[in-house]
Amino acid sequence: MIAAASPLAGPVAFLRQLFEAAVAAADPARVVPAALPDKPAGRVVVAGAGKASAAMAQALERAWRARYGETPEGLVITAYGHAAPCERIIIREAAHPTPDAAGARAAQEMLALLDGLGPDDLVIALISGGGSALAPAPAPGLTLADKQAATRALLASGATISEINTVRKHLSLLKGGRLAARAAPARVAALMISDAPGDDPAVIASGPTVADPTTRRDALAVLDRYAIAAPAARAWLDNPASETIKPGDPRLARAENHIIAAPRLSLQAAAELARARGVTPLVLGDAIEGEAAEAGRVFAGVARFAAGPDAPFGRPCVILSGGETTVTLREPPPAGARGGRNVEFLLSLALHLDGAPGIWALAADTDGVDGAAPVAGATITPDTLARARAIGLDAAASLARHDAHGFFGALGDSLVTGPTRTNVNDFRAILVGPIG
Known Gene3D superfamilies for this protein (predicted)? Predict the structure, then answer.
Protein backbone atom coordinates (compact mmCIF):
# COMPACT_ATOMS: atom_id res chain seq x y z
CA MET A 1 0.00 0.00 0.00
CA ILE A 2 1.05 3.61 -0.40
CA ALA A 3 2.34 5.55 2.57
CA ALA A 4 -0.06 7.14 5.05
CA ALA A 5 -1.12 10.73 4.39
CA SER A 6 1.32 13.41 5.50
CA PRO A 7 0.19 16.64 7.21
CA LEU A 8 -1.61 19.08 4.94
CA ALA A 9 0.92 21.26 3.12
CA GLY A 10 -0.51 22.93 0.05
CA PRO A 11 -2.98 22.01 -2.68
CA VAL A 12 -0.96 19.21 -4.29
CA ALA A 13 -0.25 17.55 -0.93
CA PHE A 14 -3.95 17.80 -0.09
CA LEU A 15 -4.92 16.10 -3.36
CA ARG A 16 -2.44 13.33 -2.66
CA GLN A 17 -4.00 12.82 0.76
CA LEU A 18 -7.41 12.40 -0.86
CA PHE A 19 -5.97 9.77 -3.20
CA GLU A 20 -4.33 7.98 -0.27
CA ALA A 21 -7.65 7.95 1.61
CA ALA A 22 -9.41 6.49 -1.44
CA VAL A 23 -6.83 3.71 -1.77
CA ALA A 24 -6.82 2.97 1.97
CA ALA A 25 -10.61 2.48 1.92
CA ALA A 26 -10.06 -0.44 -0.48
CA ASP A 27 -7.13 -2.02 1.36
CA PRO A 28 -7.72 -5.79 1.39
CA ALA A 29 -6.38 -5.96 4.96
CA ARG A 30 -9.26 -3.69 5.94
CA VAL A 31 -12.13 -5.15 3.91
CA VAL A 32 -11.49 -8.91 3.64
CA PRO A 33 -11.71 -9.97 7.33
CA ALA A 34 -15.23 -8.61 7.76
CA ALA A 35 -16.41 -10.62 4.73
CA LEU A 36 -15.21 -14.10 5.71
CA PRO A 37 -17.71 -16.85 4.89
CA ASP A 38 -18.59 -19.55 7.40
CA LYS A 39 -16.33 -22.58 7.59
CA PRO A 40 -17.77 -25.56 5.66
CA ALA A 41 -17.97 -29.18 6.71
CA GLY A 42 -15.66 -30.12 3.84
CA ARG A 43 -12.64 -28.61 2.12
CA VAL A 44 -11.84 -24.94 1.57
CA VAL A 45 -10.25 -23.99 -1.75
CA VAL A 46 -9.18 -20.44 -2.58
CA ALA A 47 -9.11 -19.34 -6.21
CA GLY A 48 -8.97 -15.92 -7.79
CA ALA A 49 -7.41 -13.38 -10.06
CA GLY A 50 -6.86 -9.65 -10.16
CA LYS A 51 -4.42 -6.95 -9.16
CA ALA A 52 -5.69 -7.11 -5.58
CA SER A 53 -5.93 -10.90 -5.37
CA ALA A 54 -2.56 -11.54 -3.70
CA ALA A 55 -3.18 -8.97 -0.96
CA MET A 56 -6.69 -10.38 -0.59
CA ALA A 57 -5.22 -13.88 -0.21
CA GLN A 58 -2.81 -12.64 2.43
CA ALA A 59 -5.60 -10.94 4.37
CA LEU A 60 -7.80 -14.04 4.05
CA GLU A 61 -5.08 -16.35 5.37
CA ARG A 62 -4.49 -14.20 8.43
CA ALA A 63 -8.17 -13.67 9.22
CA TRP A 64 -9.10 -17.34 8.59
CA ARG A 65 -6.30 -18.58 10.81
CA ALA A 66 -7.29 -16.15 13.58
CA ARG A 67 -10.91 -17.28 13.42
CA TYR A 68 -10.61 -20.98 12.65
CA GLY A 69 -7.06 -21.89 13.67
CA GLU A 70 -5.97 -23.07 10.22
CA THR A 71 -4.91 -21.69 6.86
CA PRO A 72 -6.76 -22.49 3.60
CA GLU A 73 -5.05 -23.67 0.42
CA GLY A 74 -5.49 -22.41 -3.11
CA LEU A 75 -4.08 -20.30 -5.92
CA VAL A 76 -4.57 -16.74 -7.12
CA ILE A 77 -3.11 -14.86 -10.08
CA THR A 78 -1.98 -11.27 -9.81
CA ALA A 79 0.00 -8.84 -11.94
CA TYR A 80 3.77 -8.74 -12.00
CA GLY A 81 4.97 -6.75 -9.01
CA HIS A 82 1.66 -7.06 -7.13
CA ALA A 83 2.44 -10.26 -5.20
CA ALA A 84 2.11 -10.51 -1.41
CA PRO A 85 3.66 -13.27 0.74
CA CYS A 86 1.28 -16.07 1.72
CA GLU A 87 1.71 -19.31 3.69
CA ARG A 88 -0.33 -21.89 1.76
CA ILE A 89 -2.14 -19.99 -0.97
CA ILE A 90 0.02 -20.08 -4.09
CA ILE A 91 0.61 -16.70 -5.74
CA ARG A 92 1.21 -16.64 -9.48
CA GLU A 93 2.15 -13.47 -11.38
CA ALA A 94 1.19 -12.73 -14.97
CA ALA A 95 0.90 -9.93 -17.50
CA HIS A 96 -1.70 -7.17 -17.71
CA PRO A 97 -3.44 -5.83 -19.79
CA THR A 98 -2.43 -8.26 -22.53
CA PRO A 99 -2.36 -11.87 -21.25
CA ASP A 100 0.79 -13.98 -21.37
CA ALA A 101 1.87 -17.61 -21.11
CA ALA A 102 2.44 -17.39 -17.35
CA GLY A 103 -1.19 -16.38 -16.88
CA ALA A 104 -2.38 -19.17 -19.15
CA ARG A 105 -0.41 -21.79 -17.18
CA ALA A 106 -1.67 -20.44 -13.86
CA ALA A 107 -5.26 -20.46 -15.12
CA GLN A 108 -4.94 -24.15 -15.94
CA GLU A 109 -3.62 -24.79 -12.42
CA MET A 110 -6.63 -22.98 -11.02
CA LEU A 111 -9.06 -24.98 -13.13
CA ALA A 112 -7.53 -28.21 -11.85
CA LEU A 113 -8.12 -27.09 -8.25
CA LEU A 114 -11.84 -26.80 -8.95
CA ASP A 115 -12.29 -30.37 -10.16
CA GLY A 116 -13.81 -33.06 -7.96
CA LEU A 117 -15.35 -30.81 -5.32
CA GLY A 118 -18.45 -31.91 -3.44
CA PRO A 119 -21.49 -30.22 -1.88
CA ASP A 120 -19.77 -29.92 1.54
CA ASP A 121 -16.81 -28.00 0.05
CA LEU A 122 -16.34 -24.24 -0.23
CA VAL A 123 -14.55 -22.23 -2.91
CA ILE A 124 -13.59 -18.72 -1.83
CA ALA A 125 -13.11 -16.73 -5.02
CA LEU A 126 -10.97 -13.60 -4.62
CA ILE A 127 -11.87 -11.41 -7.56
CA SER A 128 -10.63 -7.94 -8.48
CA GLY A 129 -10.00 -5.75 -11.50
CA GLY A 130 -7.42 -7.05 -13.92
CA GLY A 131 -8.55 -10.63 -13.52
CA SER A 132 -9.77 -10.82 -17.11
CA ALA A 133 -6.26 -10.52 -18.51
CA LEU A 134 -4.43 -12.26 -15.70
CA ALA A 135 -6.30 -15.57 -15.98
CA PRO A 136 -6.52 -16.34 -19.69
CA ALA A 137 -8.00 -19.80 -20.20
CA PRO A 138 -8.62 -20.00 -23.95
CA ALA A 139 -11.81 -21.73 -25.02
CA PRO A 140 -11.58 -24.86 -27.21
CA GLY A 141 -10.05 -24.12 -30.60
CA LEU A 142 -8.44 -20.87 -29.43
CA THR A 143 -4.80 -20.30 -28.61
CA LEU A 144 -3.21 -17.79 -26.27
CA ALA A 145 -2.00 -15.93 -29.35
CA ASP A 146 -5.61 -15.63 -30.54
CA LYS A 147 -6.65 -14.11 -27.20
CA GLN A 148 -3.65 -11.78 -27.17
CA ALA A 149 -4.47 -10.47 -30.64
CA ALA A 150 -8.12 -9.91 -29.79
CA THR A 151 -7.21 -8.19 -26.52
CA ARG A 152 -4.71 -5.83 -28.14
CA ALA A 153 -7.21 -4.87 -30.83
CA LEU A 154 -9.97 -4.23 -28.30
CA LEU A 155 -7.72 -2.14 -26.03
CA ALA A 156 -6.68 0.07 -28.94
CA SER A 157 -10.18 0.39 -30.39
CA GLY A 158 -11.77 2.72 -27.82
CA ALA A 159 -14.24 0.05 -26.69
CA THR A 160 -15.57 0.41 -23.15
CA ILE A 161 -14.52 -2.04 -20.46
CA SER A 162 -18.02 -3.58 -20.54
CA GLU A 163 -17.72 -4.18 -24.29
CA ILE A 164 -14.24 -5.63 -23.94
CA ASN A 165 -15.39 -7.98 -21.22
CA THR A 166 -18.39 -9.08 -23.26
CA VAL A 167 -15.93 -10.50 -25.78
CA ARG A 168 -13.49 -11.84 -23.19
CA LYS A 169 -16.21 -13.81 -21.39
CA HIS A 170 -17.10 -15.75 -24.49
CA LEU A 171 -13.49 -16.68 -25.28
CA SER A 172 -12.70 -18.18 -21.86
CA LEU A 173 -13.07 -21.34 -19.79
CA LEU A 174 -13.18 -19.29 -16.55
CA LYS A 175 -15.13 -16.11 -17.20
CA GLY A 176 -18.85 -15.50 -17.60
CA GLY A 177 -19.79 -17.76 -14.67
CA ARG A 178 -17.64 -20.69 -15.76
CA LEU A 179 -15.44 -20.72 -12.63
CA ALA A 180 -18.48 -21.22 -10.40
CA ALA A 181 -19.99 -23.76 -12.79
CA ARG A 182 -16.73 -25.73 -12.77
CA ALA A 183 -16.75 -25.76 -8.94
CA ALA A 184 -20.35 -27.04 -8.65
CA PRO A 185 -21.79 -28.62 -6.58
CA ALA A 186 -19.49 -26.90 -4.08
CA ARG A 187 -20.60 -23.66 -2.51
CA VAL A 188 -18.86 -20.58 -3.96
CA ALA A 189 -18.36 -17.34 -2.03
CA ALA A 190 -16.85 -14.63 -4.20
CA LEU A 191 -15.29 -11.63 -2.46
CA MET A 192 -14.96 -8.83 -5.00
CA ILE A 193 -13.03 -5.58 -5.07
CA SER A 194 -14.80 -3.69 -7.82
CA ASP A 195 -13.13 -1.64 -10.51
CA ALA A 196 -16.24 -1.65 -12.70
CA PRO A 197 -18.36 1.43 -13.39
CA GLY A 198 -21.62 0.80 -11.55
CA ASP A 199 -20.13 -2.16 -9.60
CA ASP A 200 -21.83 -4.81 -11.75
CA PRO A 201 -20.45 -8.16 -10.48
CA ALA A 202 -20.84 -9.58 -13.98
CA VAL A 203 -18.29 -7.04 -15.25
CA ILE A 204 -15.62 -7.29 -12.52
CA ALA A 205 -12.84 -9.48 -13.98
CA SER A 206 -15.45 -10.61 -16.54
CA GLY A 207 -17.62 -12.23 -13.87
CA PRO A 208 -16.09 -15.69 -13.35
CA THR A 209 -18.67 -16.49 -10.66
CA VAL A 210 -21.62 -14.57 -12.10
CA ALA A 211 -24.26 -15.53 -14.65
CA ASP A 212 -23.73 -13.63 -17.88
CA PRO A 213 -26.68 -11.83 -19.49
CA THR A 214 -24.71 -11.05 -22.67
CA THR A 215 -24.60 -13.44 -25.60
CA ARG A 216 -22.11 -14.56 -28.18
CA ARG A 217 -24.05 -12.43 -30.67
CA ASP A 218 -23.36 -9.42 -28.44
CA ALA A 219 -19.67 -10.30 -28.51
CA LEU A 220 -19.69 -10.51 -32.31
CA ALA A 221 -21.48 -7.15 -32.43
CA VAL A 222 -18.64 -5.57 -30.42
CA LEU A 223 -16.08 -6.92 -32.87
CA ASP A 224 -18.19 -5.58 -35.76
CA ARG A 225 -18.67 -2.17 -34.08
CA TYR A 226 -14.94 -1.59 -33.85
CA ALA A 227 -14.01 -3.35 -37.11
CA ILE A 228 -11.86 -5.97 -35.37
CA ALA A 229 -11.01 -8.92 -37.60
CA ALA A 230 -10.01 -11.58 -34.98
CA PRO A 231 -10.82 -14.52 -37.29
CA ALA A 232 -10.21 -17.26 -34.71
CA ALA A 233 -12.35 -15.51 -32.12
CA ARG A 234 -15.13 -15.00 -34.66
CA ALA A 235 -15.04 -18.65 -35.65
CA TRP A 236 -15.46 -19.71 -32.01
CA LEU A 237 -18.24 -17.16 -31.42
CA ASP A 238 -20.15 -18.65 -34.35
CA ASN A 239 -20.27 -21.90 -32.37
CA PRO A 240 -23.19 -22.21 -29.89
CA ALA A 241 -20.73 -23.85 -27.46
CA SER A 242 -19.18 -20.40 -26.94
CA GLU A 243 -22.22 -19.27 -24.95
CA THR A 244 -21.53 -18.33 -21.34
CA ILE A 245 -23.40 -19.44 -18.21
CA LYS A 246 -26.82 -17.78 -18.16
CA PRO A 247 -29.07 -16.59 -15.30
CA GLY A 248 -31.01 -19.49 -13.80
CA ASP A 249 -28.34 -22.09 -14.51
CA PRO A 250 -28.53 -24.60 -11.62
CA ARG A 251 -24.72 -24.83 -11.43
CA LEU A 252 -24.68 -21.27 -10.06
CA ALA A 253 -27.40 -21.86 -7.47
CA ARG A 254 -24.85 -21.98 -4.64
CA ALA A 255 -22.68 -19.09 -5.84
CA GLU A 256 -22.73 -15.88 -3.76
CA ASN A 257 -21.10 -12.63 -4.86
CA HIS A 258 -20.12 -9.96 -2.34
CA ILE A 259 -18.61 -6.60 -3.28
CA ILE A 260 -16.36 -5.69 -0.36
CA ALA A 261 -14.71 -2.57 -1.79
CA ALA A 262 -15.82 -0.29 -4.61
CA PRO A 263 -15.05 3.05 -6.27
CA ARG A 264 -18.03 4.79 -4.66
CA LEU A 265 -16.83 3.80 -1.18
CA SER A 266 -13.37 5.15 -1.95
CA LEU A 267 -14.86 8.39 -3.24
CA GLN A 268 -16.87 8.63 -0.02
CA ALA A 269 -13.68 8.22 2.02
CA ALA A 270 -12.01 11.03 0.07
CA ALA A 271 -15.10 13.21 0.47
CA GLU A 272 -15.12 12.66 4.23
CA LEU A 273 -11.48 13.70 4.48
CA ALA A 274 -12.12 16.81 2.36
CA ARG A 275 -15.07 17.78 4.54
CA ALA A 276 -12.97 17.35 7.67
CA ARG A 277 -10.42 19.76 6.20
CA GLY A 278 -13.04 22.39 5.48
CA VAL A 279 -13.26 21.68 1.75
CA THR A 280 -16.69 21.06 0.18
CA PRO A 281 -16.71 17.76 -1.76
CA LEU A 282 -18.74 17.51 -4.98
CA VAL A 283 -18.94 13.83 -5.98
CA LEU A 284 -19.86 13.45 -9.64
CA GLY A 285 -20.08 9.67 -9.58
CA ASP A 286 -17.94 6.58 -9.99
CA ALA A 287 -18.94 5.60 -13.52
CA ILE A 288 -17.42 8.29 -15.77
CA GLU A 289 -16.54 6.77 -19.15
CA GLY A 290 -15.70 8.05 -22.62
CA GLU A 291 -12.55 9.37 -24.26
CA ALA A 292 -10.01 10.57 -21.69
CA ALA A 293 -9.14 13.74 -23.60
CA GLU A 294 -12.80 14.62 -24.09
CA ALA A 295 -13.46 14.05 -20.39
CA GLY A 296 -10.64 16.46 -19.65
CA ARG A 297 -12.32 19.11 -21.78
CA VAL A 298 -15.68 18.60 -20.07
CA PHE A 299 -14.22 18.64 -16.56
CA ALA A 300 -12.35 21.85 -17.37
CA GLY A 301 -15.74 23.45 -17.99
CA VAL A 302 -17.06 22.08 -14.71
CA ALA A 303 -14.02 23.42 -12.82
CA ARG A 304 -14.32 26.85 -14.41
CA PHE A 305 -17.98 26.99 -13.37
CA ALA A 306 -17.07 25.97 -9.83
CA ALA A 307 -14.52 28.79 -9.76
CA GLY A 308 -16.98 31.38 -11.05
CA PRO A 309 -19.46 33.69 -9.34
CA ASP A 310 -22.55 31.65 -10.26
CA ALA A 311 -21.53 28.41 -8.52
CA PRO A 312 -24.21 27.47 -5.93
CA PHE A 313 -21.59 26.32 -3.42
CA GLY A 314 -18.72 27.94 -1.63
CA ARG A 315 -15.00 27.56 -2.09
CA PRO A 316 -12.74 25.82 -1.51
CA CYS A 317 -14.36 22.79 -3.07
CA VAL A 318 -13.08 19.59 -4.61
CA ILE A 319 -14.71 17.81 -7.55
CA LEU A 320 -14.38 14.04 -7.14
CA SER A 321 -15.09 11.33 -9.70
CA GLY A 322 -14.21 7.77 -10.65
CA GLY A 323 -14.83 5.38 -13.50
CA GLU A 324 -12.73 4.33 -16.45
CA THR A 325 -12.15 6.47 -19.50
CA THR A 326 -10.57 5.17 -22.69
CA VAL A 327 -7.80 6.22 -25.05
CA THR A 328 -8.41 5.41 -28.70
CA LEU A 329 -5.23 4.97 -30.72
CA ARG A 330 -6.03 5.99 -34.28
CA GLU A 331 -2.51 4.93 -35.22
CA PRO A 332 0.43 3.53 -33.25
CA PRO A 333 2.05 6.22 -31.06
CA PRO A 334 5.62 7.24 -31.93
CA ALA A 335 8.50 5.32 -30.39
CA GLY A 336 9.17 6.35 -26.82
CA ALA A 337 5.70 7.82 -26.20
CA ARG A 338 4.16 6.69 -22.90
CA GLY A 339 0.58 7.35 -22.01
CA GLY A 340 -2.35 6.27 -19.87
CA ARG A 341 -5.96 7.34 -19.53
CA ASN A 342 -5.44 9.30 -16.30
CA VAL A 343 -2.50 11.36 -17.50
CA GLU A 344 -4.19 11.90 -20.86
CA PHE A 345 -7.25 13.22 -18.99
CA LEU A 346 -5.02 15.54 -16.94
CA LEU A 347 -3.09 16.88 -19.91
CA SER A 348 -6.33 17.66 -21.73
CA LEU A 349 -7.69 19.26 -18.55
CA ALA A 350 -4.61 21.48 -18.26
CA LEU A 351 -4.87 22.57 -21.88
CA HIS A 352 -8.53 23.52 -21.56
CA LEU A 353 -8.03 25.27 -18.22
CA ASP A 354 -5.20 27.22 -19.89
CA GLY A 355 -3.67 28.43 -16.65
CA ALA A 356 -6.93 29.36 -14.91
CA PRO A 357 -5.97 30.53 -11.42
CA GLY A 358 -6.85 28.65 -8.26
CA ILE A 359 -7.39 25.21 -9.81
CA TRP A 360 -5.29 22.12 -9.11
CA ALA A 361 -6.00 18.49 -10.04
CA LEU A 362 -4.87 14.90 -9.57
CA ALA A 363 -5.84 11.85 -11.60
CA ALA A 364 -4.48 8.37 -10.94
CA ASP A 365 -5.27 4.69 -11.15
CA THR A 366 -5.82 3.24 -7.69
CA ASP A 367 -3.77 0.16 -8.56
CA GLY A 368 -0.67 2.33 -8.97
CA VAL A 369 -0.29 1.74 -12.71
CA ASP A 370 -1.76 4.06 -15.35
CA GLY A 371 -1.48 2.49 -18.78
CA ALA A 372 1.66 0.44 -19.29
CA ALA A 373 3.92 2.71 -17.23
CA PRO A 374 4.76 2.03 -13.54
CA VAL A 375 3.28 5.43 -12.67
CA ALA A 376 -0.09 5.90 -10.95
CA GLY A 377 -0.92 9.26 -12.54
CA ALA A 378 0.05 12.91 -12.10
CA THR A 379 -0.98 16.32 -10.82
CA ILE A 380 -1.50 19.69 -12.48
CA THR A 381 -1.24 23.20 -11.06
CA PRO A 382 -2.28 26.63 -12.39
CA ASP A 383 1.24 27.08 -13.81
CA THR A 384 1.60 23.64 -15.45
CA LEU A 385 1.54 24.99 -19.01
CA ALA A 386 3.85 27.90 -18.17
CA ARG A 387 6.39 25.57 -16.59
CA ALA A 388 6.18 23.29 -19.61
CA ARG A 389 6.80 26.13 -22.04
CA ALA A 390 9.78 27.26 -19.97
CA ILE A 391 11.57 23.94 -20.61
CA GLY A 392 10.45 23.64 -24.24
CA LEU A 393 7.55 21.23 -23.78
CA ASP A 394 4.55 21.49 -26.10
CA ALA A 395 1.51 20.23 -24.18
CA ALA A 396 -0.74 19.95 -27.25
CA ALA A 397 1.89 17.99 -29.17
CA SER A 398 2.42 15.65 -26.21
CA LEU A 399 -1.32 14.99 -26.05
CA ALA A 400 -1.53 14.35 -29.79
CA ARG A 401 1.19 11.70 -29.66
CA HIS A 402 -0.19 10.12 -26.44
CA ASP A 403 2.95 10.97 -24.48
CA ALA A 404 1.37 12.36 -21.31
CA HIS A 405 3.63 10.31 -19.02
CA GLY A 406 6.63 11.81 -20.78
CA PHE A 407 5.17 15.30 -20.34
CA PHE A 408 4.48 15.01 -16.60
CA GLY A 409 7.69 13.11 -15.97
CA ALA A 410 9.70 15.97 -17.49
CA LEU A 411 7.89 18.42 -15.20
CA GLY A 412 8.42 16.28 -12.11
CA ASP A 413 4.66 16.05 -11.60
CA SER A 414 4.21 12.29 -11.96
CA LEU A 415 2.56 10.42 -9.10
CA VAL A 416 4.58 7.27 -8.37
CA THR A 417 3.20 4.99 -5.65
CA GLY A 418 4.33 1.53 -6.65
CA PRO A 419 1.73 -1.27 -6.74
CA THR A 420 -1.00 -0.54 -4.19
CA ARG A 421 -2.25 -4.16 -4.30
CA THR A 422 -5.83 -3.04 -4.63
CA ASN A 423 -7.86 -1.74 -7.56
CA VAL A 424 -11.01 0.40 -7.46
CA ASN A 425 -10.40 2.02 -10.82
CA ASP A 426 -9.55 5.65 -11.51
CA PHE A 427 -9.60 8.49 -9.01
CA ARG A 428 -9.89 12.11 -10.09
CA ALA A 429 -9.90 15.18 -7.83
CA ILE A 430 -10.05 18.82 -8.95
CA LEU A 431 -9.50 21.38 -6.20
CA VAL A 432 -11.00 24.84 -6.75
CA GLY A 433 -10.06 27.72 -4.51
CA PRO A 434 -7.39 28.24 -1.88
CA ILE A 435 -7.13 25.94 1.12
CA GLY A 436 -6.04 26.88 4.61
Answer: Glycerate kinase, MOFRL-like N-terminal domain (3.40.50.10180), MOFRL domain (3.40.1480.10)
